[in-house]
Structure formats: structure tokens, C-alpha cells
Design a protein that fits this description.
By secondary structure, the protein is of the alpha/beta class. The protein folds into two domains: 2-254 and 457-479, Aldehyde Dehydrogenase, Chain A, domain 1; 259-447, Aldehyde Dehydrogenase, Chain A, domain 2. It is built from 15 helices and 21 strands. Helix 3 (83-94) crosses helix 4 (98-121). The chain is globular and about 65 Å long. Belongs to the aldehyde dehydrogenase family.
Length: 480
């Protein structure tokens, strides 16, 4: 039993305004994993006031970039040293399979290192050479921190989402109020401990588990200068409207309904084995999951059969079991949502290849769903257009390459996607035509030096690397 009966406000553990603790339940069997204090608007006000004072009057925004880099490097080292504990905490809270959370720790290191490298190479201040040699003016261009950042993250991959925001925000000299989901109160409480041990100064960061109402209080706060949000497109629209009214800086990493285009010359076995990870990672509760599988009609049944065999081979069960590939959904309402979509697919006339709305036998005590594959799916069906956020795949046939690109782009989303082909140059040519922020070829891992984010309803702005770091800075030009 883990208990966090205090809130991490402005670098210190303080009494919450509401003393009632929330029980954190296991999605596997609904056992109580721990208890944690939850922030209310009064706690947000304290955190924002401290962040405002630390930015306006404190040393952090005015320290040399090298000093900030050293602090964030210590944080990354501490996280690496505690990788097993972090993976176990997140797996227990979220129901994410242990293999996925452990594998993700190396990605967190690469993510942080890319930001640190970008900070070391960032031209924080430079003098521009005049375009007109006859001009006497000299322009000094500075990158300065924006101010107080409200970072709001979802429950499905909390350490990755948190580090993707707090590392660049702090490297740039901002102060941060990190709002995390109640489900992640334990792992994010441990993150707060690591921030304290890393030596982040008093006032510079707070970590607050809180509900949606308290989250809206945070993003609406007049002393917040930038909102950095990861979550659903619906919530993103609401946040964008608030930011627009108040002219706050805003970056949004939102939902997805990504397509995997299997070209006629692809190795189907290789593609399907890659989609085991590209489509079903984190129990399918991933915004980048490639859940629309586009198959050429000449090989359609071959792809459907291979996906059926793959999905039926995956073990569903206790996320702490090393043989488990797919664990439970995070909450009962999420379990019900996914099962309702499976029923909807049947009602819409899609062919149920494997799976279904039934709960897997022997797993009735948790929030489990049966991994499902639909075939004969039309792009007009809701299961082909809406983000299900669970282990449900739809297979859509296409006539030719132009048809495949048209179907891939027939979505309000544009976050991720993939192309499979035996000809890499050909795959790259198709990838260039897909309107989405990230495309992988033949299952390549997403890199962290390049920018990550979405087109269309999948968001505004980019994270990772130099572009992600730059999104937490303002340009100032001083003319001499």
C-alpha cells in the first residue's frame, strides 16, 4: 500500500486543501494499490502563485542554460536508476503490460537526451548578419522562457507525457504546474520525489493529481502563460477555446486514428508482426496506435488471416505476468466504451474475424476486453473513423496506391501512420503523401530528435528535440 497524503506544491510536500484521499484501484482485479491526495482549485491557486513568483522574482529563468541542463540531466539519471520501480508502478496503475512499461524506459532516456542535446546546441542569443550590408542596424535575437506553464497529461503513458513537457519547459527557464490524472497518483508522486532529489529549486514545479474540473481551473488561470496538453481531441478543443479567449500560448497533442498501409509488395508476415507493436502497444490505449489496417484487395484475405492468427496468439491477462501482451483497460468506463464499439462494429455490418464484446474467460474481476479484428470495413463506418482507444483493429481494402492514400487521409485525425513495402524508396514516396505528423516505414521506431505532433484534429504544435524545446521559448529581438 502506497500513500501520498500530501501534495507536491512548489517543490515541497504540503497539506492538501481537501484531506480526503482517493483509493487507487488495480485495473486487473480492483484491489486498492494505494491512496493519494487530490488537488482542488485552492491547491492550484497556491501552485500557480508560487510558479508566478519563482518566474517573476526567482533565479531559475535567469540561470545559465548549462545550469538548467545539469539539473535536468540529474533528473534523467535518477529516472534511469529507478526504471524498474517506475515501470512496475505504471503497470499496476494503468494495467499496461509489464513488457511495454519496461521497454518504454529506454525510450524515455532517448527522449530526454534529445532535449538535452537540443538545449546544449540551442542559440539562446545570437547576433544576425544584416541582409543589407549598408544597414547600420544589428539585431540581437534572444530565446527567452514564456513564463508559467500549465502541463496537463493523460493517464495512458504518464512518464513519457510528463517528461515530454517538463524537461523542455524547465530547460527553457519556465516554471511549471504539472496536472496529472488521478489514476496515476502513485507513479506521478514518485516523479515528484525525483524532481525534488534532482534539485529543482523551490517554487519552480508542482505535481498535482486532479479531476477535470480542477484541470479547467488550472488552464483558465490568468497567471498561466502557456498550456501544454496531451489528451483527447474533445478536451483539446475546449482548451484551445480557453487559450484563444485569453491569448495564451498553447500546444496540443491529441487523438489519432492512424492507418498502416500494407503495399502489394510487402512481406505480410513481417508487416503483421510489426503491427503487433505498432497497433496493439499499451493495450491499444495509445494515440499513435495504427488501428486502421489498409490491405490491397489482391492480398486482402492473406492480411486478414495473418492478423487473426496474431491476435489470437496474444496472451491477455495480469499485466505483471511476463507472458502477458495485453492487460486490462484502465477503468471500467473505458472497458465499457471499447466493448460498445465492438458491438457497434457488428451492428454496422463489419465482419467479426476474431474477438467480440464478451469479457475474456476467467478475467471478469478486472477491466478486460477481448482483442478484436474486423474485416470488410467501409471508411464510412464509425469504427473506421472514431478513436476507440483499445485493442480493436479494422481492415480496409483498397484498389490501388491512390486509393490507399485517399483512405489513409480520409480521417479528421493526422497523428501517426505506417507504410510497409519491400522497396524502401517506394514506401517513402507513399509516406510523403499521407497527411499525418509521423509516418514509420516498415515498423521503424519513432525518433526523438525530430518533431512529433499532429495534423488536423490531432493537435497544434510539436514535441521532442529542438523543435519541441523551442515551443517553450519566446523570441525577442533587440536592435542596436
Amino acid at each position: 500500500m502506497i500513500t501520498y497524503d500530501r501534495l507536491f506544491v512548489a517543490g515541497s510536500w504540503t497539506e492538501p486543501s481537501d484531506p480526503e484521499l482517493l483509493d487507487i484501484l488495480s485495473p486487473h482485479d480492483e484491489a486498492v494499490l494505494g491512496r493519494a491526495a487530490q488537488a482542488r482549485p485552492a491547491d492550484v491557486d497556491r501552485a500557480v502563485a508560487a510558479a508566478r513568483a519563482a518566474f517573476d522574482e526567482g533565479e531559475w529563468p535567469r540561470t545559465a542554460p548549462a545550469e538548467r541542463i545539469a539539473v535536468l540531466r540529474r533528473l534523467n539519471t535518477l529516472r534511469e536508476e529507478n526504471a524498474e520501480k517506475i515501470a512496475a508502478l505504471m503497470s499496476a496503475e494503468n494495467g499496461s503490460a509489464g513488457w511495454f512499461m519496461r521497454a518504454g524506459q529506454a525510450g524515455l532516456t532517448r527522449q530526454a537526451n534529445a532535449y538535452l542535446k537540443a538545449a546544449e546546441e540551442m542559440p539562446w542569443e545570437e547576433t544576425l548578419v544584416p541582409s543589407d550590408p549598408a544597414s547600420p542596424a544589428r539585431s540581437v535575437v534572444r530565446r527567452e522562457p514564456i513564463g508559467v506553464v500549465a502541463a496537463v497529461i493523460p493517464w495512458n503513458s504518464p512518464f513519457s507525457a510528463a517528461m515530454a513537457k517538463i524537461i523542455p519547459a524547465l530547460l527553457a527557464g519556465n516554471t511549471v504546474v504539472l496536472k496529472v490524472s488521478p489514476e496515476n497518483s502513485l507513479s506521478m508522486g514518485f516523479l515528484a520525489e525525483l524532481l525534488q532529489r534532482a534539485g529543482v529549486p523551490e517554487g519552480v514545479i508542482s505535481v498535482l493529481p486532479a479531476d477535470r474540473q480542477t484541470s479547467e481551473h488550472l488552464v483558465s488561470h490568468p497567471d498561466v502563460d502557456k498550456i501544454a496538453f496531451t489528451g483527447s481531441t474533445g478536451a483539446g478543443r475546449r482548451i484551445a477555446s480557453i487559450a484563444g479567449q485569453q491569448l495564451k500560448r498553447v500546444s496540443l497533442e491529441l487523438g489519432g486514428k492512424s492507418a498502416a498501409v500494407i503495399l502489394p509488395d510487402a512481406d505480410v508476415h513481417q508487416a503483421v508482426q510489426g503491427l503487433k507493436f505498432g497497433s496493439l502497444l499499451n493495450n491499444g490505449e495509445a494515440c499513435i496506435a495504427q488501428t486502421r489496417i489498409l490491405a490491397p484487395r489482391s492480398r486482402y484475405e492473406e492480411v486478414v488471416s495473418a492478423l487473426k492468427d496474431l491476435v489470437e496468439s496474444l496472451k491477455v491477462g495480469d499485466p505483471s505476468d511476463p507472458d502477458t501482451f495485453i492487460g486490462p483497460m484502465v477503468r471500467r468506463d473505458q472497458q465499457q466504451r471499447v466493448r460498445d464499439y465492438i458491438r457497434l462494429g457488428i451492428e454496422e455490418g463489419a465482419r467479426l474475424v476474431t474477438g467480440g464484446p464478451q469479457i475474456p474467460a476467467g478475467l471478469e474481476s478486472g477491466y478486460y476486453v477481448t482483442p478484436t479484428v474486423f474485416a470488410d470495413v467501409d471508411t464510412s463506418m464509425r469504427i473506421a473513423q472514431e478513436e476507440i482507444f483499445g485493442p480493436v483493429l479494422v481492415v480496409i481494402g483498397y484498389d490501388d496506391e491512390d486509393d490507399a492514400v485517399r483512405i489513409a487521409n480520409d480521417s479528421e485525425y493526422g497523428l501517426s501512420g505506417g507504410v510497409w513495402s519491400s522497396d524502401e524508396a517506394h514506401a517513402l514516396a507513399v509516406a510523403r503523401r499521407i497527411r499525418t505528423g509521423t509516418v514509420t516505414v516498415n515498423g521503424a521506431s519513432i525518433g526523438f530528435d525530430g518533431p512529433f505532433g499532429g495534423f488536423k484534429a490531432s493537435g497544434i504544435g510539436r514535441e521532442y528535440g529542438a523543435v519541441g524545446l523551442g515551443s517553450y521559448t519566446e523570441y525577442k529581438t533587440v536592435t542596436l
